Amino acid sequence: MTRLNGQRMDANVVVLGTDNVGKSALIVRFLTRRFIGEYGDIESLYTHNVVVDGREQTLNIWDAPYSQDLSSKSLMCEKRVQWADGFVLVYSICDRASFNTVSRLIQMIKTNKDILGFEKMPIVIVGNKRDLHHRRTVLSEEGRLLALSADCQFYEVSAAENYHSVLMVFHGLVDRIRESRVSVKKLAGIKGIVKSMSAVFARRRTDSL
Ligand code: GDP
Ligand code: MG
């Protein structure tokens, strides 16, 4: 799942959200810097090399189709959470239902994460189609509040009009994934210390018998 080869990092990213929110547009914008308008519905896995803060990263990005079945024990959901090092959850600022789905996706990820025993999963919430502000039905504050309450990052972007903000989304997620790996390593370090201390105490107990 996760490989660290010296300075190089591999990370798996799953992009989720209801149909038509711009998941494919967002990914294609990130990969090619272009917005081509229509994308079809093909499920795709992309591999892309990026440099973030001077370090090379290989990102595997899964453009996942939306599945209605968000029940936490669904095999599909479990598979995605197991594969992922991080998630991009997309909604459209003109589509209230797509925003409501983001909360359910967070719930699905957190439930599966607990079942599978992961530490904190890096998640970025993205409100897309910012250029369509005249049709806005979800306020920026609502997105920000949701992200705050679920401990996620938040961006509002326009895949159609702006490359830079889309770049920020993926760079932000890479940063989060790196942080989560550092804390996992630290946790492993603490566990190691606890283990060796209990070994010392166990030995003392047997010594005193
Ligand atoms: P997906 O089903 O979530 O993968 O959505 P798509 O990437 O296929 O995009 C759905 C539709 O929304 C397409 O017609 C896109 O051209 C359009 N779209 C995507 N992003 C934006 C955006 O930022 N602004 C506007 N105005 N349209 C967008
Ligand atoms: Mg798509």
Brief digest:
The protein is of the alpha/beta class and 209 residues long.
Walkthrough of the structure:
- The protein is of the alpha/beta class and 209 residues long.
- It has one domain: Rossmann fold, CATH 3.40.50.
- Helices cover 46% and strands 22% of the residues.
- The chain has helices spanning 23-32, 75-83, 96-116, 140-150, 163-208; strands at 3-5, 8-16, 44-52, 55-63, 86-92, 123-128, 153-156.
- Strands 1, 2, 3, 4, 5, 6 and 7 form a 7-stranded mixed beta sheet that branches.
- Helix 1 (23-32) crosses helix 5 (163-208) and helix 2 (75-83) crosses helix 3.
- The chain is elongated.
- Residues 23-24, 39, 41, 63 line the site of magnesium ion.
- The site of magnesium ion (MG) has 5 residues, from helix 1.
